[in-house]
Amino acid sequence: MLLHRVLPLLLLLSCSALPSDVDVERVKETFLALRFQSAATDENQGLPDRELFEQACRRVGVRCNHVLQKLKEKDPEFYRRLEMP
Predict the structure, then answer these.
(1) Residue 4 to residue 31: CA distance in whole angstroms
(2) How many other CB atoms are found less than 10 A from the CB of residue 8?
(3) Cα 75 from Cα 26, distance rounded (Å)
(4) 52 contact partners, CB below 8 Å, separation of at least 6
(5) Cβ(35)–Cβ(52) under 8 Å?
(6) What is the pLDDT along the chain (85 residues), one digit of tens a residue?
(7) Sign of the torsion formed by the C-alpha atoms of 69, 22, 78 and 65
(8) CB-CB contact of 68 with 84 (8 Å)
(9) Minimal CA–CA distance to 67: which of 20, 32, 29, 2?
(10) How far is 15 from 24, CA to CA, in rounded Å?
(11) E strand or H helix at 38
(12) Residues 63 and 71 sit within 8 Å (Cβ to Cβ)
């Protein structure tokens, strides 16, 4: 019974947690892979970097705005190359 009460709370907390540095690196790697593959796949062909980055965030399971904030602080060059408005 206790597990039924604790599990939803843990899930809620994990959804609102800030991404770790590992999460940010996973998003970057996923984004770069999507970008590289986008020329060869019909699904992602012609998509702007912003949409590919959002796909990468969804695949990793983090919120893009939190990842962008970390990138802005820790990797400003990568952040600028994304050309986010």
Answers:
(1) 36
(2) 9
(3) 14
(4) 31, 34, 35, 38, 44
(5) yes
(6) 555 565 555 555 455 568 999 999 999 999 999 999 888 888 778 888 899 999 999 999 999 999 999 999 999 999 988 865 5
(7) negative
(8) yes
(9) 20
(10) 15
(11) none
(12) no
CA dihedral 60, 65, 67, 73 (to 10 degrees): 180
Residue 17: DSSP 8-state: S
- Single-letter code of the amino acid located at 64: C
Q: What is the 3-state composition of the chain as percent helix, strand, coil, each rounded to the nearest 5?
A: 70, 0, 30
